[in-house]
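User: Continuing from earlier, I have the next pair ready.

Assistant: Great, send them over.

User: Here they are, in order.

Assistant: Folding the first of the pair now:
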Amino acid sequence: MNHCAKYFPAAKKTWVDLERCLRPTFCLCGTMQFTTRTSTTLARSRAKLQPQKRSAIPLVAGATEVSILRDPGVVTPEKLTKEALVELLVANVEYRKGVLVAISKPPGIPITGTESDVTLVSLLPRLGSRLGIKEELHVVKAATKESSGLVLLSTCHTTTKGLEDFFVMARRRKKPVFTYCAVVIGIPDPEAGDIFGYLKLENIRGHNLVVVEKDPSRSNIESRDVKKTQTYYKVLDSSEGCALVQLQPMSAFQSQLQVHATLKLAPILGDHVYSARVGKVLGQPIFLPPEDALPRTQILEDRLLQKMHISQPQMHRMPLHLHLHQLLIQDGGSGNVHTITASPPPFFLRTLQLLGLTRNITN
């Protein structure tokens, strides 16, 4: 597709280049704003930022027919060197105060792994050196490998313990600490509420999957084989069967948000593990049992594929549209609570544009 080359023709190296051309920020009301970070000449060659209503994403000449899979839209961490990954993280430092540092990571970077794997933890020494931090960094809270968003780092284990205690107390008081935004296929009904479910890990035909246990025994709950989970959700915007949704987990379980989204018959875009649990009969979504819905590449309707300018064979490259957008932290000295925010990555914002969703991700 020759017309795809019109989309950011000068930004061909890494996601960092794109970030320098077009990087969203948030005002206090949660509305995204955009600033250019290049010279006038380079800005003209890459994009012309046009003010639009409802904080719309600026359109780029020829961008209306460009897929997010087109470089440099989606970062592929395994194709980058360690040095490039570190520079990517440095370019996305969202907060730095005292012993704490918060960065925003793209999807695809695992937090931990084996010694031979390139993980976030393995990059921390280089990241600390690049930021001029002499003390050893460690992870306090991080978006999962598949998702994008905030990673909170610390050089003080005492501060980390205080934050962990704050997270626990906030959950006991039913106060959300972590806020995610997600693009889902389907519109949750009602448009706001909470999702409950007892979840457990089960091996189904060779796949370790999270499933819902409808009637767990007391012994299973006490042994923690099954965990009661809860997620607050709110639809921020919807268009033609898709929605931008805010998710606030009140518990922590593997793949909780992906599974909870399927319970509302609105799987997250790019979920190639659990989206198969939502099928359709006579055009109406239904929930399929896990044993009949093993992991597979997500299938989208032709109209959505056309809107996103991709084909079904390309869908395996679609990243998970789940972003850790905000987290709350408490100052150990004053006790004041602060909010750290990370703007969604460019591919996420581009998807909102293609699907006709607003870009108002509220606080």
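And the other member of the pair:
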Amino acid sequence: MPFSSLSDPVDLARAQGALEAAWNEVRDSIPDAFDERERVRLAYIVAALVAVAEDEDELRDRAIERYRQSKAA
């Protein structure tokens, strides 16, 4: 579970909100067959960035950037 390491309810809420927003941004570029796998991958990216982002918007933006960079590599 990507967010199982988050114990602070505020961090958990930020992570969930950022995941939904980031997923809405990248979902159209992902083939349907890979939706679940890529959403979980994005969730792990969000969880890894919670501690360094100041707010949900920054968390979303950083997660999208890292996700896209990892797809290009």
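Worth noting for the second one:
The first helix runs from residue 9 to 26. Residues 9-72 form one domain.
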